[in-house]
Design brief:
six-stranded mixed β-sheet, Rossmann fold, single chain, 2 domains, 275 residues, five-stranded parallel β-sheet, globular, Hypothetical Protein, Haloacid Dehalogenase-like Hydrolase, Chain: A, domain 2, alpha/beta
Length: 275
């Protein structure tokens, strides 16, 4: 029997944020920080790929000494924060966005829109999570009035909003990303061409990095295509069963240094063997 071919070395690590790199209290553990630092020292690029807007991934990238653009908004926006330049933006077509926002306002549904790198929610609307109080969020008396350009993406939050949106607009040619966080349910509505996988593939192509030399780590349904595209896809131990079953490897949960353990196994151990 011929020897099994060696796994190509990893040239780039793609990291989701919430439920992956970030612990439940949104901190980054010392072991995770050390593993990323060691990967950078070994010449491995590290990129954040997240559903969040630009503010948090840019702050985290700067903290960790990363110099690659950030992939945000579920892949709908790629930002070179060093040059303060948008590399790619794939918004929701304005006619569809207006329909959805006007319906949500009329029916009193929980919704947020991401426009010009900021989240907007209706004044007095429910706060579902702490980050909605952050500096990247703003209140507006009417979302339809501020929607003068195509939004990067739209979020329907809470079970009723998601159910009503799906029933009313589920047939539109858009991408619907459903996520569940404990008892909280939301759906991100995006352009069909926007995804973490597509944005990561384009970024890797810019650097001449083939998919087999990419390690992708995530915990959510929207991470699955990215993890399957990468040469090595690793699901977090805290991910839903369907996510863990979708890729060959599972690491520890995000409160047990799961990212560091994956980097140590697939990047740093391999680097030591070839040193």
């Amino acid at each position: 029997m011929p020897p099994k071919p060696a796994t190509p070395p990893i040239d780039l690590i793609a990291l989701d944020l919430d439920g992956t790199l970030l612990a439940p209290d949104e901190t980054i553990s010392a072991r995770n920080r050390a593993a990323i630092k060691d990967a950078l020292s070994a010449g491995i690029r590290v990129v954040l790929v997240t559903g969040r807007g630009v503010d948090v991934p840019i702050r985290v990238s700067k903290e960790l000494g990363l110099n690659l653009p950030v992939i945000c908004c579920h892949g709908a926006l790629t930002k070179d924060f060093g040059a303060n330049k948008t590399l790619e933006s794939i918004p929701v077509p304005l006619p569809y966005a207006k329909q959805m926002v006007e319906f949500a306002e009329r029916e009193g549904l929980a919704i947020a829109v991401y426009v010009e790198e900021a989240f907007y929610r209706l004044q007095g609307s429910e706060i579902f999570m702490d980050d909605m109080r952050g500096p990247g969020w703003y209140e507006a008396p009417s979302l339809s009035e501020i929607l003068t350009q195509a939004p990067t993406f739209i979020r329907f939050m809470g079970e009723e909003s998601v159910r009503r949106m799906q029933r009313e607009f589920g047939d539109l040619p858009l991408s619907f990303r459903y996520e569940t966080w404990n008892d909280f349910v939301e759906c991100a509505v995006l352009n069909r061409d926007a995804s973490k996988k597509n944005a990561l593939a384009r970024l890797c192509a810019d650097f001449g990095i083939p998919s087999e030399r990419v390690l992708a780590i995530g915990d959510s349904r929207n991470d699955i295509p990215m993890m399957r595209w990468a040469g090595i896809g690793v699901a977090m131990g805290n991910a839903l069963p369907e996510v863990r079953q979708s890729v060959p490897y599972v690491t520890a949960p995000n409160d047990q240094d799961g990212v560091a353990r994956a980097i140590e196994r697939f990047c740093l151990a391999a680097a030591k063997k070839t040193a």
